[in-house]
Amino acid sequence: MNMIVKATALSTPAVHADAPTAPDRETGAAADLARVREILDVLRTRHVRKGWKIDETAAAAALAWFEGRVNGRIRDDEMTNEGIKALWFLHRHGQSLDWVLAGDPAGMICNGAARSEQAVPATINDPIFAAIDRHITATMEMMRTGSIYAHREEESKKAAADADAAADAFVAASCGLTEICPTTLHGVLALLDHVDSFNRGEFALNDDCAASHEDWPDNLLDETVHDANGNRLGHPDGLPFGFWLLRNVRDALARLSGA
Questions:
Q1: Which helix (H) or strand (E) holds 194?
Q2: Distances from the Cα of 45 to the Cαs of 38, 48, 60, 108, in angstroms?
């Protein structure tokens, strides 16, 4: 099958009517080939994700088509099966045709933003996002009031009461992360990412006051959970936050998989 589509026509980006004028970009067969070679080099040498690998057979065929457009083997006035397969290879490997064929990175930028954490809360209705927001707020308030209390010049009942109240709110918000079950895979990942960020101290009031993996509540109880012998789990001293978080994540994954 031959599709009578000019390959040169592909080297024109789809630009929105209201989009700002793009800077000068190098276009044409040689520029397209250079960008494909760069893509293949990155896909072959950089980490994408565990278990991911490039389709080398399709990659070689795609490269040959782009090289053919430069050396004259491929006519630039029509699209053949070889060309269709080359473009399909790029699509299957998540690459932007606007970038390859027109040097326009706008599609890559927008696609990346669409998959970002910033985009998720606006498009996914999952209660865990609100629970994460509450935990961030409680964390910062606990550090703020705790810092005021620690640096007081004299005993202050108000500062002590504020610090105690903030600590209690932090424990409650932490419990929320173990009790509110994510309803989407995005929510599960967001929960795990949040806990990881907390553990690594990314939430900080200043250089001297930052979150730590040691700050999680370590004596949480659940009256309804028992071990194989019928004993209430966590009694008498409770079990650490990580135990209950893992149960929550496991429950979420079980529901999402239909298990």
A1: helix 185-199
A2: 11, 9, 16, 20
Domain end, chosen from 90, 114, 138, is at 114
Residue-wise pLDDT for 45-101, tens only, equals 988 877 889 999 999 999 999 999 999 998 877 788 899 999 999 999 999 999 999
Same domain, 158 and 108: no
Is residue 1 a part of any domain in this protein? Answer: no
* Domain count within the chain: 2
Looking at the chain, the whole-number percentage of residues with pLDDT higher than 70 is 78
User: How many Å separate Cα 105 from the centre of its chain?
Assistant: 20
Nearest to 248 by CA among 171, 180, 173: 180
Per-residue CA distances from 72 to 30, 84, 102, 246, 247 (Å): 11, 18, 20, 59, 61
Residues 246, 155 within the same domain: yes
CB 87 within 8 A of CB 50: no
Q: Are 234 and 241 in contact (CB under 8 A)?
A: no
Q: Give the pLDDT score at 107.
A: 86
What pLDDT is attached to residue 35? 96
Tell me if 22 is assigned to some domain: yes
- By residue range, what is the domain housing residue 175? 120-257
Examine the fold and report which residue of 66, 90, 114 is the final residue of a domain before the chain moves on. Answer: 114
Its pTM stands at: 0.51
